[in-house]
Amino acid sequence: EVHLLESGGGLVQPGGSLRLSCAASGFRFSTYAMTWVRQAPGKGLEWVSAIGEDGTTTNYANSVKGRFTISRDNSKNTLYLEMNSLRAEDTAVYYCGRDWSCDYWGQGTLVTVSS
Amino acid sequence: QSVVTQPPSASGTPGQRVTISCSGSSSNIGIKTVNWYRQLPGTAPKLLIYSNNQRPSGVPDRFSGSKSGTSASLAISGLQSEDEADYYCAVWDDSLNGGVFGGGTKLTVL
Q1: Which of B2, B47, B86 is the closest to A102 by Cβ?
Q2: Residues B77-95: pLDDT tens digits?
Q3: Taking CB atoms and an 8 Å limit, are A44 and B104 in contact across chains?
């Protein structure tokens, strides 16, 4: 059974940094692209970033480009999202999804940017 | 304002058929396949339709998807009370070189 578990969320001050992790199990992690999607409180879904199977291809939404970095460790079956220069508008639940199509989702981790 | 637009709300009565539209452009829906997701309150989204009209295993055939030109649609037949949820379309955009979600449609079963 496919399982994705996000962690690393929490309260951070504006300008601060945070690293999210997504632990994957139940499938061959190294053969799938992975995606991060976020949802601000009471708002819709926003695509954030995606990474190819071997980590060489990465894509970012304009809203996070230059501040966020997606990466993966296929030996640990784990996806990461390094978030720097955080702003209030980055406050959201962050989900990881399997593949470009997000055929499976984790339960999400809440990031709150506030002073 | 998303580059892909959906109506903010839709409604229907039990047993009815409803459709939700997703309008894009030549840089996204016009050249890429569309996925649809359903999000029940307080839960993570779930893939409902992929590649315009394909259902993942376990998704009932009451749900169907279609695409024509720069627009796509999700149809739900035999509407049930448990279909009350938020529905999102998503597609890759070549101009943005990234994915985009529609703004979401809140479906109410009257």
Answers
A1: B47
A2: 999 999 999 999 999 999 9
A3: yes
